[in-house]
Amino acid sequence: MNEKSAQFSGKNQASQPPLFEQIVEMIRKATGCELNFEDLTGVTYHCPELNLPERLKIHSCSACMFAKSTKETHLDCLQNKIAVNRIALRRRRHFSGMCHLGLNEWVVPFIYNGNVLGIFYFGSVLVTESIRESRNRIKNYCKRRDLDYIHFRKAFATAKKLTKVEFQKLQENIDLLLEIASMIVAQSGLPTENYKAVEGAHRIPSKQIPNLVQAIARYIDRNHSCSITLNDLAKHFHCNPDYASRCFSRHYPEGIFGYLRRIRLDHAVKLLRIGRHSVGEISFLVGFGDQSYFTKIFRETFGCSPGKFRNNSYLLPEDHTV
Q1: Which conformational region is residue 303 in: left (phi greater than 0), alpha (psi within -120 to 50 degrees), or beta?
Q2: What is the Cα Rg of the chain in Å?
Q3: 87-91: which pairs have CB atoms within 8 A and are 24 or more residues apart?
Q4: For site-directed labelling of 83, which of 68, 157, 243, 310 has its Cα 20 to 30 A away?
Q5: Residue 116 β-bridge partners
Q6: What domains sit in the chain, N to C, each tagged with a CATH number?
Q7: Coil, helix or strand at residue 194
Q8: What share of the chain is helix, strand, coil (3-state, %, to 5)?
Q9: What does the pLDDT average to over 260-285?
């Protein structure tokens, strides 16, 4: 099977994206800005219409992906995200800020029946009137971490630039999305008073990818808790197993099963922070099955056991600011 026909098969097999996801994509395309939703309560597990692909759960512009290219710098981004989550939970209203590397963003809590269910992050842009401050933040960060300032400055120079007025107007685009999200939750009938907000974060490379690869990634996103084999994927998407593996690896160097493992770990982090399940239950819920294997992989990835991570080893003090 050639690449064109395999991509066509993947496109036919991929289901139509949910309305919530379509609107997120529409706003991203219309503004040219990053728009992500972080579930702080686990509500998307029980309300799948709100569950977005992994690429829409994290900051995925080229500047952000450069900043998260090493374990140390990715951890700094994760810590900054957790600190912003805390501020959003405390303020319970829209606000804007500049991250530790100078990108500006709107932080919009999704509040339903008085509870913060999640947070929208909108922007990841440079504001022209504060370019100097952004560069100073990059310089100070590189000096503190002994990193190459020139490389970081070049990477962040690729970020979208807006004037202060244009940046202020961004928040107007998210009102419709908040209304749609509220309607979805209302129709689900979930007892939202039982959902307690917690912090979390995700990471995934962002690239323009073929339809087949996109379909495989979406399938893994939505079926990560199940047993998935290469032959299962090939049968589902009507393509050769070796071809599917090679095509996927061109765009995700970690390969299909490296990607699957990372998605499972991302969901495990979220469930650990929610705190409703034991480590053994989380191992089963995210698809690892064997708790010992899950603990081994988690320790290799994050440098600590799931239990230690749950005990907030990586959280910042409450007074940490954006």
Answers
A1: left
A2: 20
A3: 87/321, 87/322, 88/116, 88/119, 89/40, 89/116, 89/197
A4: 157
A5: 111
A6: 17-194 (3.30.450), 211-310 (1.10.10.60)
A7: helix
A8: 60, 10, 30
A9: 85
